[in-house]
Fold this protein.
Amino acid sequence: MDLRVFFKPDHQKLAPEYTTTAVQEFTYFITLYGTPWSQRLNVVELPGDTVPYAWGPEIAALLDLRSRKKTNYRLLANAIAHQWWGVSVVLHEG
């Protein structure tokens, strides 16, 4: 797996925890669904004035991490799952 994490300079200290979590979630999904079309993943921090998360081929993007006390495992997993299923994966709160 080729994983890269792109966070704002003042949030770089969060990168190791997000990296570990992303690798664990990506590996778990491989055991469930097999190998995705690409083994590359970029975890990207989005600006605070945008959507909570986004995804695209090889991208899992999360909202500004400034207000986060801990890693948002569910949201990261949802963004990562799109690497296999595209638009057919939706996070349902409830």
Observations:
- Residues 10 and 60 are 20 Å apart (CA to CA).
- The two ends are 32 Å apart (CA to CA).
- The first strand starts at residue 2 and ends at 6.
